[in-house]
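Ops channel
N.P.: pipeline sanity check, posting one input/output pair.
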């Protein structure tokens, strides 16, 4: 696998509605599209940190800097004997996971095309679909949240995830239960609680939720273990599971029962699969989360979500759920709660140049 050329395109697409979580809000979606050329093939990847650094310390600007000045110049001109060698090399680079993932996942697209198989098959999936769940952010009024859920549930999403934060938790869950009955439901606190909030989680425990995602600021694996022992609802870790060592430590302490694996957060497919296989060995449940990303990242998440053992629906939603437009053709679509995976070799979605031009913020070509 020889890396001939990389075209980096920073794009920005307006959101349909602002996305607010416990520690910040965005109204536009930034993404860095990586088009990696190797021996006549073009593979696509996406670096997609949230703007404003409130999910992680990485931003579109910091990733752009690392990709254009460091990672792309270092890999262009190199030759690798295998995908594994190339992705291992990428993993060892001193850069953030959110920057590396753009190139790493493009390498997998190239390899799937080279072998003539769809990306999800290369990853090891046996299914040709992913189950999709609806996620809604925080709103000023509970009625707005209920209306958002109502608007999208007709697409058949397999569960509902609501964001919570201190002061806006039990009342929101109660409202959803009141309006939508026993819909499969979960909460995501984005690490906004402390162990002293245990009484809140004891109360939430009464509502038959599928899981509590990332309750505690952390990693706080010891505190999370105490919380997990005190309640019946499974705890799902997201932000806290950045590395393999995090997973081992949290599993040993029994800090959680479900892992949210995000391709962006862990730096690509190779690391995501390592975490996936270790979770399977440990008997932990898994599902695939999103930032959310634009269509390339979303399609990658759907592909990974088709693996056995991804027991819960993914956060990957329809392109037009969050964005006014998307850079992929066709759009990612959810029908009856399912995303059908393309059966063409590679990612299976086209990225038209006119879409990239329409939403372009910056572009850089790196070649020998
Ligand atoms: Mg989360």
């Amino acid at each position: 696998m020889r890396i001939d050329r990389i075209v980096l395109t920073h794009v920005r697409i307006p959101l349909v509605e602002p996305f607010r979580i416990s520690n910040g809000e965005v109204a536009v979606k930034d993404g860095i599209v990586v088009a990696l050329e190797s021996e006549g093939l073009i593979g696509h990847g996406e670096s997609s940190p949230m703007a404003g650094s409130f999910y992680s310390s990485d931003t579109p600007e910091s990733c752009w800097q690392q990709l254009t000045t460091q990672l792309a110049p270092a890999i262009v001109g190199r030759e690798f004997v295998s995908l594994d060698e190339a992705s291992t090399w990428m993993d060892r680079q001193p850069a953030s996971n959110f920057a590396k993932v753009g190139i790493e996942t493009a390498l997998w697209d190239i390899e799937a095309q080279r072998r003539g198989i769809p990306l999800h098959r290369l990853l090891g999936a046996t299914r040709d679909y992913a189950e999709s769940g609806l996620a809604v952010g925080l709103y000023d009024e509970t009625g707005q949240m209920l209306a958002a859920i109502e608007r999208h549930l007709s697409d058949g999403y397999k569960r509902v995830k609501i964001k919570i934060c201190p002061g806006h938790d039990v009342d929101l869950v109660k409202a959803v239960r009141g309006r939508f009955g026993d819909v499969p439901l979960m909460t995501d606190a984005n690490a906004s609680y402390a162990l002293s909030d245990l009484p809140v989680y004891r109360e939430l425990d009464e509502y038959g939720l599928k899981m509590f995602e990332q309750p505690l600021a952390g990693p706080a694996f010891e505190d999370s273990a105490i919380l997990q022992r005190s309640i019946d609802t499974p705890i799902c870790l997201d932000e806290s599971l950045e590395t393999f060592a995090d997973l081992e430590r949290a599993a040993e302490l029994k800090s959680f029962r479900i892992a949210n694996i995000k391709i962006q957060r862990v730096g690509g497919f190779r690391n995501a699969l390592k975490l996936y296989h270790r979770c399977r060995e440990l008997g932990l449940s898994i599902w695939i989360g999103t930032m959310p990303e634009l269509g390339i990242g979303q399609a990658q998440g759907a592909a990974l979500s088709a693996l056995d053992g991804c027991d819960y629906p993914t956060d990957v939603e329809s392109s037009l759920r969050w964005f006014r437009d998307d850079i992929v053709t066709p759009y990612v679509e959810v029908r009856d709660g399912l995303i059908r995976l393309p059966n063409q070799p590679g990612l299976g979605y086209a990225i038209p140049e006119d879409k990239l031009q329409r939403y372009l913020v910056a572009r850089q070509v790196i070649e020998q």
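N.P.: looks fine end to end. The CA atoms of residues 124 and 332 lie 21 Å apart.
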